[in-house]
Design brief:
Blueprint (H helix, E strand, L loop, with lengths): L11 H11 L2 E2 H7 L10 H13 L3 E6 L7 E6 L1 H44 L1
Antiparallel strand pairs: 1-3, 2-3
Helix pairs in contact: 1-4, 2-3
Length: 124
């Protein structure tokens, strides 16, 4: 069983939109910054596929940036449509969190009740 937290399906997309809202960035920078959002595994291929998909969907745009210390890099920026998508995804995540909070609360009640039942049975 995995010890990594289970992230919502397609959670990478809103995370990339958020990071690009904070500042334009190139792929390697985004890969590094994703760690703070729970992405521990390095998956450059998945990152670049997601960035290309976001660009195809008009949510980000990119341009090549000259580098004096290495190869040129593609820098990504959030578009107006990307900002709107970020707002929509954030709203959906907030609604999902409310549902998860209800689930976790009910589960905690069950575990507490089950623990009390076990203690009573042990005393018999």
């Amino acid at each position: 069983m995995s010890t990594e937290p289970a992230l919502p399906r397609n959670f990478l997309r809103p995370c990339l939109l958020l990071l690009l809202r904070e500042q334009p960035a190139h792929g390697y920078d985004l890969l590094e910054r994703l760690r703070s959002l729970g992405f521990d595994r390095d998956d450059p291929g998945g990152l670049y596929r997601s960035l290309r998909s976001l660009e195809r969907d008009g949510l980000v745009c990119s341009a090549w940036e000259r580098s004096t210390s290495g190869p040129d890099r593609r820098t990504y920026k959030l578009t107006r449509a990307g900002m709107e998508e970020l707002h929509a995804r954030t709203k959906a995540l907030a609604e999902a969190r409310e549902t998860l909070d209800i689930f976790l609360s009910r589960y905690a009640e069950f575990v507490t009740l089950r623990g009390a039942e076990t203690r009573v049975e042990a005393r018999r």
